Amino acid sequence: MGFEPTPPLQGHGSEPCASANSATSAYNKLILSKTGSDRKLTRFEKFARVEYMRRFLIILVWFPITMVTLLATLSLQNFRYHFSIREEAASSLSELINGWKAPESYQLYGSLPKVLGASTFSITSQDAVPVFIKDYLSKYNSPMAPYSDGLILAAEENNLDPLLLLAIAQCESNLGKKMPPGCNNPFGWGIHSQGTLCFANWQTGFNTVAKGLREKYFNSGMDSPEEIMARYTPLALEKEGSWAKCINYFLSRFEVGE
Questions:
Q1: CA 91, 141, 252, 197 torsion-angle sign
Q2: Please, which pLDDT band fits residue 83 given cuts at 50, 70 and 90?
Q3: How many Cβ atoms are within 10 Å of 24's Cβ, its own excluded?
């Protein structure tokens, strides 16, 4: 008994399967075209992407520029602040230096002579000069304070202005606070490159310096800070007479009781 071949079912033959595969491939390509990297961008999407990149670049550039600007501003403000302080300090120093001048009279202390190398006053408890010197030395914590009477006595014995000795001690050693320990020489007397002249006690130092000023300076006609400076500290001549300016400055302060 023979069999007749069964006709192929619809969809199971070679041609129908090929059609199905083609349809599936077309569908997959459509999906990929909408979701993959091969999809073409619309004009709106292109514009949005460009705008996003532009903003990103703006932020990327803005941040370092802002930081640099901020740092530069702070540095400039700091420079201006320090410059203004230095300028004010320089101005004050200039006014101080230019304001130094020799006092023309001693109006506060009636017993005090106008000439530095002369002394005609008598030391009494009512005299303003001893009180002022003692108070001044005590006010600035000078180690000379307990011996202020000896300073005035040394000046009187050598016919000198005691305020000149006080001014020299102020300019040379800050009233004895800046000198070798136990040296008892607040006047810078005999100090040179080979060493410092020291005295056994304060009174010996007062007497030696007062006598030296009288014999080596005033008796030779050198009775102003400028003339004394030329021999006392000649190096100050190279510094625009800084020593004499300092002496005159403090003498002018002593004149008004400062």
A1: negative
A2: low
A3: 10
Q: Which pLDDT does position 225 carry in this prediction?
A: 92
* Cα 73 off chain centre by: 21
Q: Give the position of tokens 């400062």.
A: 258
pLDDT tens track for 64-82:
888 888 888 877 777 666 6
Q: Are 133 and 152 in contact (CB under 8 A)?
A: yes
* Whole-number Cα distances in Å, 170 to 11, 58, 217, 249: 123, 66, 20, 11
Indicate the pTM of the whole model: 0.53
State the CB neighbour count (10 A cutoff) for residue 132.
20
pLDDT in tens, 31-65: 555 554 455 667 666 667 777 777 778 888 877 88
Which residues are within 8 A (CB) of 166 and not within 5 positions of it... i.e. 6 or more apart? Answer: 133, 136, 137, 151, 250, 254
How many other C-beta atoms can be found within 10 angstroms of the C-beta atom of residue 167? 22
Axis-axis angle for helices 162-173, 202-216 (nearest 10): 110
Question: 134: Cβ–Cβ under 8 A, 6 or more apart, which residues?
Answer: 145, 148, 149
Dist CA 204 CA 154 (whole Å): 9
Integer CA distances (angstroms), 157 to 51, 160, 164, 211, 214, in order: 97, 8, 14, 8, 10
* pLDDT at residue 24 in the model: 56
DSSP SS3 for 192: strand
